[in-house]
Amino acid sequence: MSRYKILQILVGAIGVIILIRLFSMQILSDEYDVKATKNIVRTEVEYPMRGEVLDRNGEYLVKSRVCYDVMVIYREIPKTGFDTMRLATILEITPEALKKKLKAAALSPRAPTLVTNYLSQDNKLLLDEGDFKGFHTRFRTAREYPRKIGGNLLGYVSEVRDEDVRKWEYYEVGDYIGVGGVESAYEAMLRGEKGVSYRIYDSYGALKGEYNDGMDNILPVKGSQLTSTIDARLQEFAEELMVGKIGAVVAIEPSTGEILIMVSSPTYDPDLMVGRQRNNNYAAMLHNQRQPQFNRAVKAKYPPGSTFKLVQGLIGLQEGVLKASDRYPCSMGFSYGSRKMACHAHSSPLNLRDAVAHSCNAYFCYVFRDMITNSKYGSVKEGVRVWNDYVYSFGFGRKLGTDQYGEGTGYVPTPEYYDKGYNNSWNWGTVISCAIGQGEMGCTPLQMANLAAIVANRGYYYIPHIIKKIEGRDSIDSRFYERQYTLVDSIHFVPIVEGMWRGVNVAGTSGKARLEGWDVCGKTGTAQNPNGADHSTFLSFAPKDNPKIAISVYVEHGGFGASIALPIASLIEELYLTDTITRPKMVEDVLNFRPNYTRNYDAKQQRYDQKRQQSKK
User: Fold this and answer.
1) How far is residue 600's CA from residue 578's CA, in Å, rounded to a whole number?
2) Looking at residue 411, what DSSP letter applies?
3) Which of 4, 24, 332, 344 is most open to solvent, judged by the fewest CB atoms within 10 Å of its CB?
């Protein structure tokens, strides 16, 4: 066969193969049709509106407003360019910032790159009218706060971290997630569900319409609306009273466990955590030595001080080492060996009711000593172990299980703690400071408010919670409806309640908390502090029977419990119970009160700022 003939056959065979391949590609297979479609159909995530948060009366605490991310696909920008100055003005960024973003986008010319965020609806319309090829918007929502309260309580929304993307299938780079407070605790309900749109664009990046007339699109589902237990007006008032002070206020409705207010001071305007300056504002808070971003109400570990005497009295009654009629002497304190637990001046001896009313240190040292040295335990170590069980039942030394993000445990010392610290050689005198809520004792303001609710309820509590209703659900978590009982019988609460009532309404340390006609019960606390002035704390509930509010106030370095914690709590109770304030002078005194530590914090902040400036140089 000639070479020419062979060449003809080869050419013919190749032609047949090409024809078969073309037939397969165009008739039998849709592979390239799909690829071609992908070139003009863009899949776009549709972000849902985030759910709102209301207060208990239906007032908005958190709302969502519409805004947009501005994205650019570099390869779709016309070669003729665009009006850089005009676009930068619309986007409210500098021309230099815009050029920097475009330079970054050029590294991945086919991928959408974020140019800026939080673009308003009005500016979005200007962007659309400008017909800037290659630039498009992505729907978002941003938070806004009508009352501008509850920064730590509510939390904020921020861009997801890499670990969030790895942990949760829902999130992708560029998504937003709740951080802290309600936003984090109820993220799954608030975020809603994403949707998907399939849109057709031409080779110049111009939108031509919905693919398949939008039949394949999946609509986003708005996040659930949450109704909180918070009273917005009360929260705002409490935050105002705590300005210039460091500490916390927590108030609970005893009959439900609903948290009426939760204040951590200093706090911050939640609007600072929204918008393009969020990162700068957050950095400024991190450098603030008063730590406004730290939620002291649920995380701080404070010595409870004299408010803890209520627990000691109750345990003594339950264990049978104390009767309400028992009297103990107090000669300005409680002596043991060569040491003495000091006390303030008051009549002596006192029974249990008056010991509560006058906050006698010596009385409760006797009770605590008699309890942990009871011969039925066999040793002080076992006595402390039994004491631990009682204290835990009041919610101390552990998480209460609230729905508030980042709850702390506080601390209750155990026999093992003392074995380790004292080389297995310790006795009741070693731990006697626990009798009055000092020493190693630590608790959160939430736990202290819960103690007030326990005494108000005569022995039980509902787990404190901050959300009372979730849109689309019949109820919240069932655990919030279950009574949690202490190990102390309700009958033993009677003399303790009577003592708290006497301390306010007859004679005692809490007289300034009296509200005519409301039978307020209260207990002051002065927590010793080795680093300056004592901490001021006050625990209260009202009215005595069928109580409507239980509250705890803690002010660092505030001095005696009656000096500042008591008036703050009393004013809040008055507003809640009577819907008015009749003691403007007390309000003025509270607003003007500045603990001595203020100057110390200012000096500390100044030293810190100077050190940062030097490090930059």
Assistant:
1) 38
2) B
3) 4
Cα–Cα dist 90/125, whole Å? 10
pLDDT at 276 over 90: no
Specify the CATH number for the domain of residue 187: 3.90.1310.10
Quote the pTM value: 0.88
pLDDT in tens, 228-256: 999 999 999 999 999 999 999 999 999 99
- Torsion angle defined by CA atoms of residues 357, 361, 366 and 367, in that order, rounded to the nearest 10 degrees: 50
> Is 162 a member of any domain?
yes
DSSP assignment of 152-166 equals HHH-EEEEPPHHHHH
What domain range is 442 assigned to? 232-283+294-599
Q: Which of 290, 181, 184 is nearest to 242 (CA)?
A: 290
Q: Are residues 222 and 240 in the same domain?
A: no
* 481-540 pLDDT, tens digit each: 999 999 999 999 999 999 999 999 999 999 999 999 999 999 999 988 877 789 999 999
**Per residue in 391-419, pLDDT tens?**
999 999 999 999 998 999 999 999 999 99
Number of domains in the chain: 2
Helices 232-241 and 584-592 cross at an angle (nearest 10°) of 60
Helix H or strand E segment including 487: none
| 155 burial level (CB within 10 Å; 0-12, 13-18, 19+) | buried
| Per-residue pLDDT at 606 exceeds 80 | no
Whether 354 and 250 map to the same domain: the answer is: yes
Determine, yes or no, domain membership for 434. Answer: yes
pLDDT of residue 112: 83
Q: Does 139 lie in the same domain as 245?
A: no
Q: What is the token pair recorded at 305?
A: 């001080």
Separation between Cα atoms, residue 602 and residue 398, nearest integer Å: 34
Nearest to 270 by CA among 168, 156, 117: 156
Max CA-CA distance within the chain? 133
Specify if 9 maps to a domain: no
Residues 347, 490: one domain? yes
Whole-number average pLDDT of the chain:
90
* Residue 22: both structure tokens together: 């073309």
